[in-house]
């Protein structure tokens, strides 16, 4: 529950008053003087043509159907956090309402009805989208009938709180703008806000660093699965079905926000190798300079750095394949990413890949990539037909493949385990054109296997023997 004493400043104003920096009058007749701002933890401005058209359509519909001429249009509420900036002036940070207010500010600018705007944007993504929407509004000014819109007739209620905690709770729960906050938006807000308490001087730096990371949705979802698909998962948490976007969002917030510690230390957990000399028993220590995928996280810099590290792995070793010096590895991953009908298997593969690299780096990476492929993609040949999403977590927990990678002391331990995995090949569908048959043919070609494709049963048997032999010979 939000504490009532902090929510004492409420009122109604026009959009024109709000955007132009005019005094706001509360219901208790108190004047609020302040300049609108956007906090670092806010997501960028993301509205596109669809949301703009809907907003303009609502405004025009109201104007058309109003019984009383020039009656005001109520646009909902805006949540503001009052922040005293070193007693120089009050900044009213927009917690909820940025998308609507920015769009209306652009409309006011295009029509020339609002030239004195106080909003300032620091996000490169916001600026890019603003330029895009500004060009759209200018080009379609007459078609959209922007001149008919009067910002002095659009009213909003405002709620101003002095408590950043309450403001953040509003930020998490509000969804009035039509583009729901993603889990990544919310964890960004959580960790940048954590910096404002202990390391406020770093907040802008890490806000820019976060933005430079680009789209984190894929890597965050992979990390969530890698942490939840754990045989020793004491929380007994399951990753929601891939179509349950709201539940996935909530689990992302739970794992990467709610469960993080308030400890401000940036710490990375990794295995230490200590080698002792035979006679003097002196020790030489080797450290792996990385974060562990399943490590506990602290709010603020630690979580941001953790996500930055795994985004780097995801982009460079999987999505963009910038590690060109690992020629054989890059060739194999390029081939693997083109395989059809393997979406859910590929998601598992990426998790295992990041688990391995965060512990062993590039050491024998091309060998791991191929040995893990035999295991991670095994259901493509053992299933009679399609590989369904709900079969993957069951396979992971039964085989304990991710746990084996996460807990092995050496890469060779992992290789031995992967080689011991019993691959099964079902011949169903090999007598006709099918995704399974295409997969087997592609694999035969890539690994240069000699297989008779005419007889389905014989093909399945020969493929099993030849493929196992080829993979198990790696690294020998």
Automatic annotation (TrEMBL):
Signal peptide: none annotated. Residues 34-192 form the GmrSD restriction endonucleases N-terminal domain. InterPro entries: DUF7834, GmrSD_N. Transmembrane segments: none annotated. It comes from the Bacteria. Residues 203-426 form the DUF7834 domain. Pfam families: DUF7834, GmrSD_N. This is DUF262 domain-containing protein. It comes from Acinetobacter guillouiae.
